[in-house]
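User: Predict the complex with NAP.
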Amino acid sequence: MLGEAFYNTFKEDYEVRASDIDVNDSWLTELDVRDYSAVRQEASEFRPDFIFNLAAYTDLEYCENNPNDTYITNTIGAENAALISQELGSTYVFISTAGVFDGGQETYNDYDIPAPLSVYGKSKYYAELSIKDGCHKYFIFRAGWMMGGGHKDKKFVHKIVKQLLEGKQKLHVVGDLKGSPTYTYDFAANAKEMISTQFYGLYNMTCEGGPSRYEVAAEMLKIFELQDKIELIEVKSDYFSEEYFAPRPNSEVLENLKLKSRNLDFMRDWVFSLKDYLEKDWNHKVKEEMP
Ligand SMILES: NC(=O)c1ccc[n+]([C@@H]2O[C@H](COP(=O)([O-])OP(=O)(O)OC[C@H]3O[C@@H](n4cnc5c(N)ncnc54)[C@H](OP(=O)(O)O)[C@@H]3O)[C@@H](O)[C@H]2O)c1
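Assistant: Here is the predicted structure with NAP placed in the model:
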């Protein structure tokens, strides 16, 4: 999801080599972040100024069921790229998550202490720690609920769109979990601004606002002009507890305190970003293909 936005945003001004474990686009080559030697060889040949590590298992249920696999990819993979960045003098850019917090507070700033609940959250938090230990020049950007990617979208927005395209008239949506939506293109643009500075370190970087999933779905229906046609039913998260069994924080709402204090917070209100994303990738499809 995020890789597509990073590639399109950075290729304008940088020479970009993009890779993935699953080569599903012409601009990608194959590289496995678990393979230290392969990553080191690729980086040694290319000598990048920046190494971005966006690779991770992002399906929380998969992570919960496969902890070792998750730590090897999300944590050791991140550590591999940190060591290589340090060795080659590249700046390391790592993407972390609001899921490092336990959700007990309403909002979290960059200085709040993580206490991850899920295997996924732990794997990302341990990655953060190893990067801080192993690397001098790094940026860690924490994203919230990712929105973006169009056909690569695996997350909430696509799950709602999919139900609309299947002709569902009633949607059950969770109202008791809150988060900060994060549009991939806004995130990539803000990351691009940040990496041209020397303000290394860890930053919360999410869109402004902290809606529930229900509020995001309601806004989607408004943007698609379907609010009078589709019934939205608010449920508690335990309604989906069999399907989504990984523990999720009650709040994944982040405050971009450090970005704001440096006048480098260009993240927009989530409603504007959601509108842009739906207009770019989904409006047309929903209008044309919804039964
Ligand atoms: N999605 C969210 O809500 C969210 C929120 C906060 C932070 N983040 C972070 O943002 C980053 C980008 O995630 P995303 O949202 O763009 O999700 P994504 O589309 O799932 O991107 C992650 C990519 O990493 C790939 N990958 C998995 N194992 C790999 C390996 N061993 N070597 C190389 N690539 C590998 C995945 O391939 P497969 O699809 O084949 O597994 C996938 O293409 C991740 O670090 C994620 O933890 C995501």
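The pocket of NAP is lined by residues 1-3, 20-22, 32-34, 54-58, 73, 77, 95, 97, 124, 143, 145-146, 152, 154-155 (CB under 6 Å).
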